[in-house]
């Protein structure tokens, strides 16, 4: 039985990843969030742990708890993240509070650093691991609605992916990123993105769905991706072609 930890699986893309992985045989899925999402019931093989990934002590407590019960973590999906978007524009650097910058960086980038730091020693011991960092199309081209705190955090995740891929040689661990385009979740609700926008701007003619990103994650943890390492998989319907 393999053990997967997906951060931020209480809603949106994370929930789609959790639901898809839960369909895999021999896979125990653990997810976390700052608080449970009302109305969300996870499949039987999914466990929920409370954790604020922006605090290293909270991450340490979560990983200790998982290791105490399951003895290992084989798959780590760093999905939890926050953003601040507004319709028809973006928060310019002049308007960005220092506190917001730190909150976004602490959650989106430091959170992944904390989980990787805690989980990799266990993966090394088992000589097996699959790490997926959920980045963003905005880190590939500079973004339109996303602001620089968010874009920097997501570009940082690509750097973390590449740096770890170089560092983790001969350990049986692969590290990759997925860079979603605009995915129809609560996170982008404030941006009020419409199907009309997608028909005009996205070659595949629609906003992305959580399942689209979950499919990319499932590929990257499958044996079909055993030779994919240090890569960023763009998953944006052709909106941003890098
Ligand atoms: N929706 C989109 O268009 C895009 C989303 N992404 C990224 O995909 C990931 C998921 O996004 P969505 O599902 O759209 O967002 P969402 O806002 O619907 O869900 C975010 C999840 O992260 C969790 N979370 C937030 N802060 C946390 C913390 N401090 N500790 C633990 N959990 C925390 C929330 O509880 C929730 O489960 C994020 O990293 C986001 O940046 C990337 C590109 C586009
Ligand atoms: C969902 C995130 C915050 C987001 C929002 C807006 C854009 C963009 O207009 O460039 C993105 O690329 C995003 O990832």
Report on this model:
- The protein has 242 residues and is α/β, with parallel strands linked by helices.
- The protein has a single domain (2-235), classed as Rossmann fold.
- The chain has helices spanning 12-21, 56-70, 98-126, 138-141, 148-167, 195-201, 210-221, and strands spanning 2-7, 27-33, 46-50, 75-78, 129-134, 173-180, 232-235.
- The protein has a seven-stranded parallel beta sheet with strand order 3-2-1-4-5-6-7, with helices on both faces.
- The longest helix has 29 residues, at 98-126.
- The mean pLDDT is 96.
- Residues 83, 85, 136-138, 143-146, 150, 187-188, 191 line the site of the ligand CC(C)c1ccc(C(=O)O)c(O)c1O.
- Ligand LTTKRYJ7 binds next to loops.
Which key terms come to mind for this protein?
7 strands, seven-stranded parallel sheet, binds the ligand CC(C)c1ccc(C(=O)O)c(O)c1O, 242 residues, Rossmann fold
CATH architecture: 3-Layer(aba) Sandwich
Helix content: 40-55%
Query: What oligomeric assembly is this protein in?
Result: single chain
The main sheet orders its strands as 3-2-1-4-5-6-7
User: Ligands in the structure?
Assistant: 1,4-dihydronicotinamide adenine dinucleotide, the ligand CC(C)c1ccc(C(=O)O)c(O)c1O
Anisotropy-based shape: globular
Q: How many angstroms separate the termini?
A: 37 Å
**CATH homology superfamily name:** NAD(P)-binding Rossmann-like Domain
Q: What would you report as the Rg, rounded to the nearest angstrom?
A: 17 Å
| Uncertain spans | none
Largest sheet, in brief, is:
7 strands, parallel
Mean pLDDT: 96
| Number of DSSP helical runs | 7
Helix/strand-derived category reads: alpha/beta
How many domains would you count in the coordinates? Answer: 1
**Main CATH class:** Alpha Beta
| Proportion of strand residues | 15-25%
Protein name: SDR family NAD(P)-dependent oxidoreductase
Keywords: Oxidoreductase
Pfam families: adh_short
Family: Belongs to the short-chain dehydrogenases/reductases (SDR) family.
């Amino acid at each position: 039985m393999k053990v997967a930890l997906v951060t931020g699986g209480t809603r949106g893309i994370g929930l789609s990843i959790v639901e898809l992985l839960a369909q895999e045989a021999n896979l125990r899925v653990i997810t976390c969030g700052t608080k449970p999402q009302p109305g969300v019931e996870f499949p039987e093989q999914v466990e929920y742990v409370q954790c604020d990934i922006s605090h290293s002590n909270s991450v340490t407590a979560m990983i200790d708890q998982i290791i105490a019960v399951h003895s290992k973590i084989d798959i780590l999906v760093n999905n939890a993240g926050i953003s601040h978007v507004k319709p028809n524009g973006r928060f310019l650097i002049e308007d960005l509070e220092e506190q917001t910058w730190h909150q976004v960086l602490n959650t989106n980038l430091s959170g992944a650093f904390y989980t990787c730091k805690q989980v990799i020693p266990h993966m090394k011991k088992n000589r097996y691991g699959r790490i997926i960092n959920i980045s963003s199309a905005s880190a590939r081209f500079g973004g339109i609605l996303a602001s620089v705190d968010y874009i920097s955090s997501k570009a940082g995740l690509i750097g973390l992916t590449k740096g770890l891929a170089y560092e983790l040689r001969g350990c049986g661990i692969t590290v990759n990123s997925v860079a979603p385009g605009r995915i129809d979740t609560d996170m982008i609700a404030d941006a009020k993105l419409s199907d009309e926008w997608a028909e005009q701007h996205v070659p595949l003619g629609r906003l992305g769905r959580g399942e689209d990103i979950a499919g990319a994650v499932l590929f990257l943890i499958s044996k079909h991706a055993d030779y994919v390492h240090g890569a960023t998989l763009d998953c944006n319907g052709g909106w941003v072609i890098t």
